[in-house]
Amino acid sequence: MTFAFHPEAEDEFIEAAAYYESCEPGLGLDFCREVYTAIQNAIAHPRMWPALEGDVHRCLVHRFPYGIFFSIEPEGIFIVAVMHLRRTPDYWKHRRQPGGKS
């Protein structure tokens, strides 16, 4: 199984990594490792993670207050958000299908 990011989710991931790196050298890399570990966990066991709305599941990231929001697609998982858990919870809903289709 593989994964793909919605373009806005990929931007969130890059921006969060840059933020953590600006806080402390090496912390951005740690964040990236934890996100990729969460993605690998989601790929390995996609139905293990709770569905929050419809077919969108959430896998939590260790050490950082983030969740990986994804849908299960025939070719793999589609990451709709790399969300800080204190952010407005519904902002990602327009991204539910690959390419942002509803």
Core attributes:
34% helix, YaeB-like fold, five-stranded mixed β-sheet, alpha+beta, 5 strands, 102 residues
In short:
This protein is 34% helix and 28% strand.
**Describe the biggest sheet?**
5 strands, mixed
CATH superfamily: RelE-like
Output the strand order for the largest sheet.
1-5-4-3-2
Number of strands: 5
User: Could you state the order of secondary-structure elements as H and E?
Assistant: EHHEEEE
Share of helical residues: 25-40%
Count of runs of 4 or more consecutive helical residues: 2
Rg computed from alpha carbons, rounded to a whole number of angstroms: 13 Å
CATH-defined architecture = 2-Layer Sandwich
Distance N to C terminus: 23 Å
Structural domains: how many: 1
Could you name the CATH class? Alpha Beta
Shape: globular
Do you know the CATH topology?
YaeB-like fold
User: How confident is the prediction overall: mean pLDDT?
Assistant: 89
**Low-pLDDT ranges:** none
Q: Helices and strands: which structural class? A: alpha+beta
**Percent in strands:** 25-35%
